[in-house]
Amino acid sequence: MRRDVTRRIFRGRDLVAVSAQARAAFGDDAVVLRTSSLQVGAASAIEIVAAPHRDVERFRARMTPKPERPSVIAFVGPTGAGKTTTAVKAALHPDAFGDRRVGFVTLDTYRAGAVAQLETYAQVAGVPLEVAYEPADVAPALARLADRDVVIVDTPGRGPKAGDAAEWRALLDAIAPDEVHLVVPATVRRDVAEAVRDAMEHATHAVLTKLDEVPEESGVADLAAALDLPVRWVTDGQSIPTDLAAGVPRLVRALGVRGGIE
Ligand SMILES: Nc1nc2c(ncn2[C@@H]2O[C@H](COP(=O)(O)OP(=O)(O)OP(=O)(O)O)[C@@H](O)[C@H]2O)c(=O)[nH]1
Ligand SMILES: [Mg+2]
């Protein structure tokens, strides 16, 4: 597929030999994404995964968010994708918003227990939480959070076929977030992820969650390339807030995972 990063595995007796192969294939600036040593009986060998420099830089550029600092940021996506957990991680992780003061708004008044789930975290963390049931609630809710630098918006889980999407989209439109992050588990099939993205045309960014559930994070970079949205964060576990990481370095690293490379 056009958007994919070309990668190839090269094997040889030492690094000099395999690097020469990679340069012959991809040019002098070929990027070595991963190096491992192999033991074949008594002999040892080197294996690398390499890619054309241009492909890696294009991938990095596509995945890198613009440097603007958002003040209202929403998390959307399918049920159980990790929206609420990621919203809380982003609010509390020191590398996400640093010293900026954070507030929550939730639009998820549909699922039983959803408000309580976020309320518990908000209370423990001392982050104010507003609940918006209808578009008229939005302006007063944002006004009560006027002293916050960043407002994080949690939304109900909706798959591509949900019939009632119009209701909460009206709420989201009223909030007018600077960034809408599409939350997609790294475990989903690529065609499913693409359908989710096509159904959420508002999305400006993607968050890949549950990287810890994918062996070696194989295929994660390709899933991100298929979504074709910049990635501020990925998540790799249930611990709040520690299991949140910057997206791009992790995705570039995942390019070098051997699984899935022909
Ligand atoms: N292993 C793993 N589990 C995660 C990760 N992120 C979230 N989860 C778990 O996934 C489950 C669903 O997370 P939520 O944050 O409630 O998902 P949601 O998208 O808000 O779900 P709904 O609001 O019901 O649509 C919880 O058990 C989370 O702990 C992750 O990165 N790795
Ligand atoms: Mg939720």
Give Rg in angstroms: 21 Å
The CATH architecture of the largest domain = 3-Layer(aba) Sandwich
Structural class assignment: alpha/beta
The residue-averaged pLDDT reads 92
What is the count of distinct domains? 2
InterPro entries: AAA+_ATPase (IPR003593), FlhF__GTPase_dom (IPR047040), P-loop_NTPase (IPR027417), SRP54_GTPase_dom (IPR000897)
Main location: membrane
Domain AAA+ ATPase: 69-235
Membrane topology: Peripheral membrane protein
Description of the structure:
The longest helix has 12 residues, at 15-26. This protein is of the alpha/beta class and 262 residues long. The protein has two domains: 8-60; 66-255, 3-Layer(aba) Sandwich (Rossmann fold). The strands form three sheets. A six-stranded parallel beta sheet has the order 6-5-7-4-8-9, sandwiched between helices. It has helices at 15-26, 53-63, 83-92, 94-97, 114-125, 135-144, 165-175, 190-199, 220-227, 247-255; strands at residues 8-12, 31-40, 43-51, 72-76, 102-106, 129-131, 150-154, 179-185, 205-209, 233-235, 244-246. Guanosine-5'-triphosphate binds next to helix 3. Pfam families: SRP54.
Structure in a nutshell:
With 262 residues, the chain is of the alpha/beta class.
Question: Could you give the topology of this structure?
Answer:
Blueprint: E1 8-12, H1 15-26, E2 31-40, E3 43-51, H2 53-63, E4 72-76, H3 83-92, H4 94-97, E5 102-106, H5 114-125, E6 129-131, H6 135-144, E7 150-154, H7 165-175, E8 179-185, H8 190-199, E9 205-209, H9 220-227, E10 233-235, E11 244-246, H10 247-255
Parallel strand pairs: 4-7, 4-8, 5-6, 5-7, 8-9
Antiparallel strand pairs: 1-3, 2-3, 10-11
The structure holds guanosine-5'-triphosphate (GTP) and magnesium ion.
